[in-house]
Amino acid sequence: MKTESDFTEIVKRKLWTTVFTALFFSFVMGAIFLGVDGPYHKGNQFIGWSYVVFTFSGPVILVYGNLVSLALEHAQKNWFKGNQWLYILLHVVFGSASGLLFQQAGFAIIGMAAALLYALIDRLLLLYKGPKRKKVYLFTSIPILFSLIAWITLEYTSPKIPPFTKEEAVKIAASDEGRVLGTFPDKIGKVEGTINDYRVIMATEASELEKEKYLVVFTET
């Protein structure tokens, strides 16, 4: 019969495993998405994508992952006691549920990888007790330290965003200022033409309001 201390121990082990798995998985996905938003501020990209993935994966692992794990742990004690590899394998099988649900092989692979990681850490925490478990806790904290180092390193080594110029402001504004009868020039200046015997002048001007902030004016005469 389980005592209160046994229940507390299980909850503590599952929660630690959940946090580690969700964080590690999020950091890996953050590294995969690195560079998607351009070459600048890669450190912030890494942390940003990791946070986005964590907000989705964390609740899934916390609810679905732990319910499955608790059910498998109960089944292990009653039907396949001592068979740790079957316990891990069943985690992987249930981890593929997202792929079956969305009919996407990629989701299945990601879910299986996260489930495998969860099961391995869970078994390590179960098998090692006392001082040895503290070493496992220390080991599972290493990815968090590495992610902080990666964040700082990537942010420091990323190229700086070049200043936003008046010419770029004009090009961006001109791209949205098309007219049926013509298009304003995408650089400071003017163009002339004739429409229905009328002489038409389209002019583009720009002035700096403050640092990297410009007022672009289009005039049609």
TrEMBL record:
Ranges that cross the membrane: 15-36, 48-72, 84-102, 108-128, 135-154
Keywords annotated in UniProt: Membrane, Transmembrane, Transmembrane helix
Top-level taxonomic group: Bacteria
Protein name: Uncharacterized protein
